[in-house]
Amino acid sequence: MILEKKKTFNAFAARQGLRSTRQRDIILDVFLATHEHLSVEELYLKVKASQPGIGQATVYRTLKLFVEAGLAREMMLPDGQTRYEHQLVGEHHDHLICTGCNAIIEFEDEQIEQLQRDIAKRHGFSLTAHKMQLFGLCPACSSKA
Amino acid sequence: MILEKKKTFNAFAARQGLRSTRQRDIILDVFLATHEHLSVEELYLKVKASQPGIGQATVYRTLKLFVEAGLAREMMLPDGQTRYEHQLVGEHHDHLICTGCNAIIEFEDEQIEQLQRDIAKRHGFSLTAHKMQLFGLCPACSSKA
DNA sequence: CAAGTTATTGAAAGTCGTTTTCAAAAGACC
DNA sequence: GGTCTTTTGAAAACGACTTTCAATAACTTG
Ligand SMILES: [Mn+2]
Ligand SMILES: [Mn+2]
Ligand SMILES: [Zn+2]
Ligand SMILES: [Zn+2]
């Protein structure tokens, strides 16, 4: 699975005439080893553990390549940092976010997706993407408050 | 209606012990005269037309007060600028955005809202807010492409 | 309404995430 | 290896916003 994603990226790189570098390999390994919604800074710190000399700019640049290659998705939470998460082909989910502890729960709701398509259609729009985030307090944070 | 909103703000200001200033009056007037989703910069330029000496920081500060007072809502589009729009008590809408011409269409969908509440409930969350934006091409932009 | 107190203001500096610049280093191809 | 390009890291630049601070304006009180 991880191997498959590496192949996806290598194929993308070849297609784009990108060179294969040690830095991109490490960043890809670190990214694929995570299962969260990490900010560039967080990723950068993890990457530096494997390879101290690596530059922040390279991490920024490389994550954008992952998005182009289709294996990462960019997301913005209200904290003003861009975060990246794995993107599986043909899959999509939205987020339920605890404003107390920043926990993120992923969900899919085909009914909502359909209603969204209906709304777009009603206005003659050709829909290309959407963003939906629900904010509240998770059970633990609710009981604390 | 505009008068009523001014009263809302004055009541808020009184409650908070805020002073009534010429700057806040002008910014409120300009804000209430708009019907779009304006960035701070756009608002600032409009405000400067009425009152050239006014500072950008004052516009930033004042718009936050409007949000606290409940008469404005803050929104973020992917362009990285905070925008403000009118907020009517008890009303809510989401946005359908054309990525071609940046047109914004507002919509409400009680079915989706209900499904969102269901999702939150299913995860034991107490929902406090949500953000939903649909992206695509409006009819005009679709036909161009 | 003058004096005293405190909030507000505008300009400029600071912050923070991100992007760009640029010279050195590394990859690709011969 | 030699040549041509891409990539890299450090540092500077950027852009939206926030903070600082001294001057000014709004209330309060006598
Ligand atoms: Mn996710
Ligand atoms: Mn709106
Ligand atoms: Zn929580
Ligand atoms: Zn359009």
Report what the structure shows:
Two copies of one chain form a homodimer. Chain A folds into two domains: 2-86, Orthogonal Bundle (Arc Repressor Mutant, subunit A), CATH 1.10.10.10; 94-144, Ferric-uptake regulator, C-terminal dimerisarion domain (Dna Ligase, domain 1). Chain A is 49% helix and 23% strand. Chain A has six helices and six strands. Chain A has helices spanning 2-16, 22-33, 40-50, 56-69, 110-122, 139-144; strands at residues 38-39, 72-76, 82-86, 94-98, 104-107, 126-137. In chain A, a hairpin with a 5-residue loop joins β2 (72-76) and β3 (82-86). The N and C termini of chain A lie far apart (41 Å). The model of chain A has no long low-confidence stretch (mean pLDDT 96). Chain A binds chain B through residues 76, 78, 96, 98-99, 105, 107, 109, 111-112, 115-116, 119-120, 123-139, 142, and chain B through 76, 78, 96, 98-99, 105, 107, 109, 111-112, 115-116, 119-120, 123-139, 142. The complex binds manganese (II) ion (MN) (2 copies) and zinc ion (2 copies). One zinc ion (ZN) binds at residues 98, 100-101, 103, 137-138, 140-141 of chain B. Chain A binds a DNA duplex (30 and 30 nucleotides) through α2 and α4.
